């Protein structure tokens, strides 16, 4: 009996100890915990010398200190022309690329530069976008066409409103950025239009990256320099320019600097689009990147107007359109004025101007004629009188030089292309009473900057034969302006 009681007591003690494992003695709440009986360690962890954790990453952010030029182009508007106002923004006009191709200059057609730029320090870091353009004059040694750069275009006797330009986008202040022109300053040879800036996405950018499509419009004038490149009938070297899914590529692209170098065709217009920032988060004060490329310009040739010369005289004398000629003087019934004339021309290259006239015909009786050999002319750059003829001197050269015919094979000299102005007047020298010097677009002798000697008013004279039938004789003057092409 005593032994049985002892066994019962032992059992109760064991039960009590087990129950204490489930009871929080400091509260009245019973806590049920797992009841584990480990017979041995987990064999998978008994001898473990390798562990993995794959839920974190290392992020390396790489930003470019310079602006990243992703893409660019030079384009012509084919759906709009306007002599004064540019195409309005957002009107859905049609633009097509003319990079490394020929362009028209008619003072009505608008062009634009378009460039896609990313800034990894935000758009406020962009300070300038400068656009320079210059006729390369047969050499690509100048790479930026700078106004004051050492060896730059404007230091090589090529400065002129028809030969270069400099545009800029200023984003330095907190106010609205603006687009303007540094030169040419006259506003005639080159006209700037609108600019646009549109937010876009750069798939390769970082959190702070801001990207914009920028367009800058302009309109060249009539004498914007002719540039044939390889030749109007030849293929241009045209480096590809592409950007897909944020990856820029092209024949002239340098991925290390995000710059484009595509000067491949001489006797063209070169352009340089340079973006400059202020170097935020970097030691240097600023960084630059650029796109350099080319386009061509067709020849433009136009005789805008010509005066109507009138000579009054008598048989047996030489009379002219000069104010000093006998019948032009007030004392002999004239008006005292000069009747010398000007011819207004436009050419965007080297040029010649010739004039010819056949025998003059009597206005009342066509049976009477006045031989063209009796008619003399001088003016333009011709300072001595030359008479016409039906054979040896069929044409007279007022600009340039030739041997009596105005076909290409007979031309022996060309006038140099005019640096400035949208036209040229015969009459830059006031050498006749009542006439003043005539320059285009308010230029004068000091600022016109022509490579040619000053042009003279055009004087006609007639050596009237004795016995010539009286009356009015008329003959058509044929002027021919020719632009030198390649």
Short description:
With 486 residues, this protein is mainly β. It has one helix at 2-20, and strands at residues 68-81, 95-97, 102-103, 109-119, 126-135, 164-170, 178-183, 190-200, 210-220, 242-244, 247-249, 253-254, 259-261, 269-277, 287-297, 301-306, 318-320, 343-347, 351-357, 360-362, 369-370, 375-380, 382-387, 396-399, 401-402, 411-413, 424-425, 456-463, 473-474, 477-483.
Coarse structural class: mainly beta
Note poorly predicted spans: 22-33
Radius of gyration: 42 Å
Helix content: under 10%
- Number of H/I helices: 1
User: Strand share of the residues?
Assistant: 35-45%
The 3D shape can be described as elongated
Instruction: Work out the number of β strands.
Output: 30
Provide mean pLDDT, rounded.
86
- Terminus-to-terminus distance: 136 Å
- Largest sheet composition: 8 strands, mixed
């Amino acid at each position: 009996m005593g032994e049985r009681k002892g066994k019962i007591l032992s059992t109760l003690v064991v039960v009590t100890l087990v129950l204490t494992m489930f009871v929080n003695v400091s509260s009245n709440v019973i806590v049920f915990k797992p009841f584990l009986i480990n017979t041995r360690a987990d064999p998978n962890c008994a001898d473990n010398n390798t562990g993995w954790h794959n839920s974190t990453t290392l992020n390396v952010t790489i930003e470019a200190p310079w602006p990243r030029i992703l893409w660019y182009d030079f384009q012509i508007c084919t759906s709009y022309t306007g002599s004064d106002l540019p195409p309005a923004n957002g009107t859905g006009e049609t633009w097509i690329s003319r990079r490394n191709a020929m362009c028209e200059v008619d003072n009505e057609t608008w062009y634009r530069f378009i460039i896609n730029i990313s800034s990894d320090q935000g758009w406020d870091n962009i300070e300038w976008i400068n656009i320079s353009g210059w006729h390369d004059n047969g050499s690509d040694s100048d790479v930026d066409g700078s106004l004051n750069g050492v060896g730059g275009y404007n230091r090589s006797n090529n400065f002129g409103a028809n030969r270069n330009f400099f545009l800029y986008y200023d984003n330095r202040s907190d106010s609205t950025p603006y687009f303007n022109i540094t030169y040419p300053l006259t506003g005639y040879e080159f006209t700037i239009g609108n600019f646009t800036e549109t937010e876009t996405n750069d798939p390769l950018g970082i959190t702070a990256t801001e990207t914009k499509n920028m367009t800058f419009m302009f309109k060249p004038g009539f004498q914007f320099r002719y540039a044939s490149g390889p030749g109007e009938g030849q293929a241009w070297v045209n480096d590809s320019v592409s950007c897909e899914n944020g990856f820029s590529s092209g024949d002239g692209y340098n991925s290390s600097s995000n710059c484009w170098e595509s000067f491949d065709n001489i006797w063209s217009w070169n352009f340089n689009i340079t973006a400059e920032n202020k170097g935020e988060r970097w030691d240097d004060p600023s960084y630059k990147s650029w796109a350099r490329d080319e386009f061509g310009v067709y020849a433009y040739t136009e005789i805008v107007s010509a005066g109507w010369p009138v000579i009054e005289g008598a048989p047996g004398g030489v009379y002219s359109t000069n104010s000093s000629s006998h019948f032009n003087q007030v004392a002999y019934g004239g008006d005292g004025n000069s009747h010398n004339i000007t011819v207004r021309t436009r050419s965007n290259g080297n040029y010649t101007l010739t004039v010819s006239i056949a025998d003059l015909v009597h206005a009342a009786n066509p049976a009477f004629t006045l031989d063209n050999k009796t008619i003399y002319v001088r003016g333009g750059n011709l300072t001595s009188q030359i008479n016409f003829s039906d054979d040896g001197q069929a044409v007279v050269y007022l600009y340039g030089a030739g041997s009596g015919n105005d076909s290409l094979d007979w031309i022996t000299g060309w006038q140099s292309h005019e640096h400035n102005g949208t036209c040229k007047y015969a009459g830059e020298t006031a050498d006749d009473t009542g006439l003043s010097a005539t320059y285009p677009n308010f230029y004068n002798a000091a600022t016109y900057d022509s490579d040619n000697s000053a042009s003279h008013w055009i004087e006609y004279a007639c050596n009237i034969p004795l016995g010539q039938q009286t009356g009015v004789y008329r003959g058509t003057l044929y002027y021919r302006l020719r632009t030198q092409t390649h």
